[in-house]
Design goal:
The protein is α/β, with parallel strands linked by helices. The strands form 4 sheets. Strands 3-2-4-1-10-9-11-14 form an 8-stranded antiparallel beta sheet, covered by helices on one side. A 6-stranded antiparallel beta sheet has the order 5-6-7-8-12-13. The longest helix has 20 residues. It binds 6-O-phosphono-alpha-D-glucopyranose. 6-O-phosphono-alpha-D-glucopyranose binds next to helix 9.
Amino acid sequence: MCGIIGYTGPAQALDVLLAGLATLEYRGYDSAGVVVVDDAQAPALQVRKRQGKLSVLSGELSTEGLTGRTGLGHTRWATHGAPNDRNAHPHVSDDGAVAVIHNGIIENHAPLRAELTAAGHSFSSETDTEVVVQLVAAARAADPSLDLAAAVRLVVPRLEGAFSLAFVDRREPEVIVATRREAPLVLGRSQGSSLLASDIAGLLVHTREVEALLDGQVAVLTPRGVTVTDLDGAPAQGHRFTVDWDVAAAEKQGYEHFMRKEIHEQPTAVRETLLARTDAEGVLILDELRLDPAEFRAVDTVVIVACGTSFHAGMVAKYAIEHWAGIPVEVEIASEFRYRDPILSPHTLVVAVSQSGETADTLAAAAHAQEQRAKVVAVTNVVGSSLARRADAVLYTRAGPEIGVAGTKTFTTQIVALDVLALYLAQSRRALFPDECADHLARMEALPELIEQVLQCEPQVAELAQVFARSGYVMFVGRHVGLPIALEGALKLKEISYLHAEGFAAGEMKHGPIALIEPGGPVVALATRGHVRSKIVSNIAEVKARGAVVLAIATEGDTEIKEHADHVVYVPEVHELLYPILTVVPLQLLAYAMAVALDRDVDQPRNLAKTVTVE
Ligand code: G6P
């Protein structure tokens, strides 16, 4: 969702804020704004905000400039109020003293606004956020002995919803106060300055030593340091950790888009995810295990919860866990799971999959599961993320920072990590012999090299994309492990090309979706070798008979498929359960090339955000 950055230190804040926002823009990008505290004799809040991408704001500020050494910056993903200048953050209290930036939703903003309006306050935006800054300013006005931090501590308990908030006050020109509840906020120190950001990426160029603020904590940042307290003002500490991401990994490095770079990083990302997965005796290990291994032996049901692309990785994992570990698996969209009454027991293992580790629905689903005494394993890309901290065990995907909004390398590494978890469960329950586990792991270790080979199809796919981009829709069909890849291929395409794209279980086509086929309409079929190949070939024949143009993703050496499909992209032969890690690659490349052909904003597609911290 929204990107947040804050700086107080010896440098000009504006430069730091704009550079920080550039690294966070993928979180939201319908408007951007900054506040810089002018630290001259009579400190004042200088606020500039503009609808549109960060470049609009930074373009304006490049001629104007704002001097001051403390400030906040924000990129917005609108929830309450249209994306326009007025609703952009920061928001300033009507007495002009306090400014705030916010990520999340204040659910009780309406009664708070009514209360403040009745007390004579005037509002200048339609946002939920503005009530917070008015409340803080009102608290200080009512009791002048309160400093900014004390006023924030008073106001936070009145807020409902999820939020991370950062404030400055012209009366304390070197101070930033921040707080959070169920939305991420990380703090860092560098060269006599203190910083905060909604995401590690915003701090990486300054420091790798970060402290994640925890729910209900309040941080006070000055150039001299950061102090953290709870809401009563008692000393507290966030979660401190070292980030092992490389700054260069968050840059484009010559690629025209992050998404293309990240697609090409998949061999490395998968290799990293597989590193050191066994101990000296060859026994599989997890990254963080806060559970007794006996509890894994007792697992009798697995429930995977996730959203978006991560949900598709969970769907792929179902086949591996059921096949290797022999445990029944349900896969459910986190936003649905959290609002039903799932039947869970202490022997249920809930696997929460989230690249960011901050998705509100997935976090709530994990909490819901833990309340019912189920154990939660997190599969995430972000060390120290809320999900990683909450879970009873963690498997990291080690994909490095992913900036493109459409998930690519986080998806393939999630499948790999989940396959490792499947083998771990199989090992715990002795469902596989140790040498069988070792064989599967060895097959997975060959994947980076095989993905490299699949990436060679890029020119062929790019050519096809020119043709497919002229069509109004694309359908994707698959069976077995090909089904989640059909869904993922369609999701990638709709996210970044804005074309209508749907994925279907190939066997379901004749129950409805086949009615959509028009002569010349493109259909992508996942048709690799395996026990359903002949079935998918029949499904290809059915759509061909209705005039579809079919692109098949098939196994190298399958020349017969050319008799059925109009175009074929080959991937190397692998174990049937591992095909998704290869077959998704041409679909990512197809979506990418079609979006480029249609001149779309590949890395920052309309209406989407990378990390969804609201429900
Ligand atoms: C957003 C992103 C998707 C992602 C989904 C779940 O919608 O745009 O790429 O798959 O959130 O995110 P998570 O961080 O939980 O994997």
